[in-house]
Design a protein that fits this description.
This protein is of the alpha/beta class and about 375 residues long. The chain is about 40% helix and about 15% strand. Helix 3 packs parallel to helix 12 and helix 13 packs parallel to helix 16. The two termini are about 20 Å apart.
């Protein structure tokens, strides 16, 4: 690349920086704080602040912007899931808070649709909860949930994916109706559901007791997330946090999930920016980046490119790249490996169950979109 300083701080350590065409993935660093967030974080370093107070005030600010009863800043969306699970099991009982992850004597079962098992449901188990599936691989009915709720049920967990809703899953509306009728809480993983703006906090406004958001998608640090929910659940969640551990001297399971005051301020700045920015302009830039990737690839025999039209959530658009191995002599996975072996490496992937490379522009810096398209084209010359 033309910029000789690119990645220099990593090269000094003997590590190899990469061009990220995969998207906002944790494996590659997740996000780059935007200028407004960097500035706010810099200003936050000018003074110390009791973090119990800062969490309270920052949560109030975010709750107002999201139009939900309460909010709390956590160490990523995964941390929010763990703390919420601990909260629904232990409540505000300090003895139980300190007993976790031993759940003896507590309601410790978290119900989850079999169709909604996913990579990050592991976060629900870290506080000591037991995941219990309901429904089948084919569908989930209201009766499946009704029959699954028992004396050990602490909550029902729901995985929200607005980009590709599952018509065979039990709806969140019905889940809330059935669970609340039996005095069971509902938690929602909505980590990437930040756009359209009405989706931000939507699930709590629908009646769920909790939802999480990954703040990295809005230009905050990768290591930050947001818990939104009812005042009661967010309060009990806060008791489990690293701040509660130190400020109250009660040893909750959230102690390792620490964030600093700069990150908390950065999240507030990121949410404020997200709620007030020109999203049409943001989407237009992403669409232009996709066009720059596709331009050198059009017309190559055995190569098909199409733009993903999705704008819902955290990663708008994107390019789907299909490779006909019979024509090109390379499979999609071969292309992934060759790009990764180049200089500089370009990271992409073929996700499980898919037969194409999904390229995303979320993690691309200026000019890297063109580089990605040209480097892929070179493989077929």
């Amino acid at each position: 690349m033309a910029n000789t300083e690119w990645g220099a701080v990593y090269k000094e350590l003997g590590a190899k920086p990469v061009i990220n065409a995969t998207g906002s993935v944790t494996l590659l660093g997740g996000s780059t704080p935007v200028p407004e967030v960097k500035e706010a974080m810099e200003r936050a370093g000018d003074a110390y602040i009791p973090l119990m107070e800062l969490e309270e005030k920052a949560g109030e600010a975010i709750a107002r912007m999201a139009d939900v009863p309460a909010a709390y800043i956590t160490s990523g969306a995964g941390s929010a899931l763990t703390l919420a699970t601990a909260a629904v099991m232990a409540g505000n009982d300090d003895d139980r808070i300190e007993q976790l992850p031993d759940t003896t004597g507590m309601k410790n079962e978290i119900l989850i649709q079999k169709r909604q098992r996913y990579w990050y449901d592991r976060c629900l188990e870290l506080a000591g909860a037991k995941l219990v599936e309901f429904g089948s691989d084919e569908e989930t009915t209201a009766k499946d949930l009704e029959d699954a709720i028992g004396p050990k049920t602490a909550a029902v967990h729901y995985y929200a994916v607005e980009q590709s809703p599952d018509p065979k899953a039990l709806s969140l509306e019905k889940t809330i109706e059935i669970a609340h009728a039996r005095d069971v809480k509902v938690t929602v993983d909505a980590a990437g559901q930040i756009y359209p703006l009405e989706n931000f906090g939507k699930y709590v406004r629908m009646g769920a007791d909790f939802q999480c958001i990954a703040a990295k998608y809005m230009g905050a640090s990768q290591s930050t997330g947001i818990a939104l929910g009812t005042e009661d659940l967010i309060h009990t969640l806060s008791l489990q946090s690293f701040v509660g551990y130190e400020g109250r001297r009660i040893r909750g399971v959230g102690r390792p999930q620490k964030i600093d005051r700069q990150e908390i301020i950065g999240v507030v700045a990121a949410v404020k920016r997200w709620m007030t920015m020109n999203h049409e302009e943001r989407l237009a830039v992403a669409e232009q980046q996709c066009e720059a990737i596709m331009a050198p690839l059009k017309g190559i025999p055995g190569v098909t490119v199409e733009q993903n039209p999705n704008i819902i959530g955290h990663q708008p658009f994107g390019v789907n790249l299909r490779i006909d191995a019979a024509v090109t002599g390379m499979s999609a996975q071969d292309v992934v490996e060759k790009l990764k072996a180049g200089d500089p490496p370009i990271w992409t992937r073929v996700r499980p169950g898919e037969d194409y490379i999904a390229l995303h522009v979320f993690g691309l810096y200026e000019g890297e979109d063109k580089t990605v398209g040209e480097r892929i084209a070179e493989l077929f010359r």
